[in-house]
Amino acid sequence: MADQPYNWREPAWVIPNYLALGPFPQAQDLERLRVQGITAVLTLNEIHEGSLPIRLKSQFTWTRVPIPDGLLGGVPKVTQLSQCMEVLGQWRTEGHHTYVHCMAGVGRSPLVCAAYLIVFESYSLSEAMQQIQYARPIASPDARQLMVLSQFLQTRLKS
Q: SS3 breakdown of the chain: % helix, strand, coil, rounded to 5?
């Protein structure tokens, strides 16, 4: 059987049946997320990037931690990564299956999922990035995003 072509719209499971990442969900994506077991959605988009489907907030546990888009020159802040880890840690405790998204699932959501793997699953940075790339081959946080991730990890070591 031939391999299926890569579909960038599909959620990519970083931790199977637990933590997925991908692009900005459209209304037609919500049922697919539900069928795949997603119960919580973390939005990393800034408000000006587009309107989420109305049903998203009623069908899923939902939070937004706006992080600027790296493709537009934006750089995340250490505090934003900390906020994401607080949300994801709470949802982990509550047993949610989580979808983390940005616009294309290339920079911000892979960055946050890599931080999750390091903080909660004891991955090294290299291991986390390998896992992200395996799950979503188009994932490619830029150098500035990775620098902020390194700063975030250093602040965690100091505390």
A: 50, 15, 40
